[in-house]
């Protein structure tokens, strides 16, 4: 099948952004002899995968696909599953630059050859890239992802995100917002530039739309400084001055800025508020000690200083907002004192992309599965070291 992926790639380029699934379906049927295809996309909570081509799939058929598709999505590995009558279903992860979008299902009339599987994997890669680009031109895939209506604030926050995961030869990074459909001000941002990774986590002040607007101003101010070549100090100071000029100290944003040198594990940090950094190493979870400086926008012309710490190959960092570590539902002790550390230790064998969900589920359980009372952000960074692979969990 040397030209199968090229045929699909051409079909995707020629298709309107809202018809990618149909274009891929026609091309895959023609080139691989498939009897059926579907595209499953992950919802905002990453709690399920939902069909794009066949949204009215009968419950029995959907549940049968869902379990295998979820295994493919979680493992990021191709999965084969018998479909009866000698047919075979091939599930392939739809992932681009480490961003997990969903799963491609290809049903074949017989067991596939290695060349067919290679062609199917190439097709999945082309489709993932096209889906990522198409979100600027259609709402179809966003509609498929949402299980309930987003609040206005949440709509803004999800559109402001850089993604939910990104991979590099030396690291894997993932993040998650909750409550996914009503999140207000908490947020994360990142950028990869060569061997430098910049990560910011914001503990937005207030609630609802006003919190989302404040976060949007802060994030874009830091991006403006970063994209103009400014380092962490310039990013923090421009954002602080911008927020102060708008609110005269009445509103401010607790923010943590990190910059990882992926070649040696050196991390530079500006701690401007309440997000906490915790390191998982050898089964032990410890908070990274940083001197806390003033939140962004609290006073005019606030100046910031950089601190440094180092990672060892295999280290995992968690950055969490106060909606995670300080959560104390029903007057119980804060989640961060014991339960959060247990949740983090439980992620040792998971990749960062799964680890953020594990910690969030631990937080939800701590709240007795009721809606969270505060916004919550979990960001997880695995540094593998120079020449390290991106396929494992923390040591």
Automatic annotation (TrEMBL):
InterPro entries: Bact_Sigma-Reg, PPM-type-like_dom_sf, PPM-type_phosphatase-like_dom. Residues 168-383 form the PPM-type phosphatase domain. GO terms for molecular function: phosphatase activity. Keywords: Hydrolase. It comes from the Bacteria. This is Serine phosphatase RsbU (Regulator of sigma subunit).
């Amino acid at each position: 099948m040397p030209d199968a992926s090229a045929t699909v790639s051409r079909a995707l380029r020629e298709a309107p952004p809202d018809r990618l699934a149909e274009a891929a379906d026609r091309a895959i049927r023609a080139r691989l002899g498939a009897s059926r295809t579907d595209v499953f996309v992950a919802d905002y909570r990453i709690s399920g995968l939902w069909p794009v081509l066949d949204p009215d799939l009968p419950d029995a058929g959907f549940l049968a696909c869902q379990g295998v598709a979820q295994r493919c999505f979680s493992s990021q590995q191709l999965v084969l599953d018998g479909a009866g009558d000698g047919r075979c279903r091939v599930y392939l992860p739809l992932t681009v630059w480490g961003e997990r979008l969903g799963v491609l299902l290809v049903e074949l009339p017989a067991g596939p050859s290695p060349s067919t599987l290679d062609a199917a994997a190439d097709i999945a890669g082309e489709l993932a890239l096209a889906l990522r680009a198409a979100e600027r031109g259609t709402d179809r895939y966003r509609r498929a992802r949402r299980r309930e209506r987003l609040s206005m604030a949440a709509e803004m926050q999800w559109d402001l995100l850089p993604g939910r995961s990104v991979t590099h030869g030396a690291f894997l990074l993932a993040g998650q917002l909750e409550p996914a459909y009503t999140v207000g001000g908490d947020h994360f941002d990142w950028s990869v530039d060569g061997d430098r990774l910049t990560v910011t986590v914001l503990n937005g002040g207030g609630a609802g739309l006003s919190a989302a607007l404040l976060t949007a101003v802060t994030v874009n101010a830091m991006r403006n400084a970063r994209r103009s070549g400014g380092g962490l100090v310039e990013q923090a100071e421009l954002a602080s001055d911008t927020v102060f000029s708008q609110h005269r100290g009445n509103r401010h944003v607790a923010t943590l800025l990190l910059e990882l040198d992926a070649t040696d594990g050196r991390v530079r940090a500006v701690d401007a508020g309440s997000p906490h950094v915790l390191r998982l190493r050898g089964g032990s979870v410890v908070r990274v000690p940083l001197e806390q400086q003033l939140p962004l926008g609290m006073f005019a012309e606030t100046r910031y200083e950089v601190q440094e710490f180092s990672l060892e190959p295999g280290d995992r960092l968690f950055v969490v907002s106060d909606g995670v570590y300080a959560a104390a539902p029903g007057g119980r002790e804060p989640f961060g004192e014991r339960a959060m550390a247990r949740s983090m230790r439980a992620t040792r064998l998971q990749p960062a992309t799964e680890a953020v969900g594990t910690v969030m589920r631990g937080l939800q359980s701590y709240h007795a599965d009721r809606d969270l009372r505060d916004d919550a952000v979990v960001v997880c960074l695995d540094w593998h070291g120079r020449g390290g692979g991106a396929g494992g969990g923390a040591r």
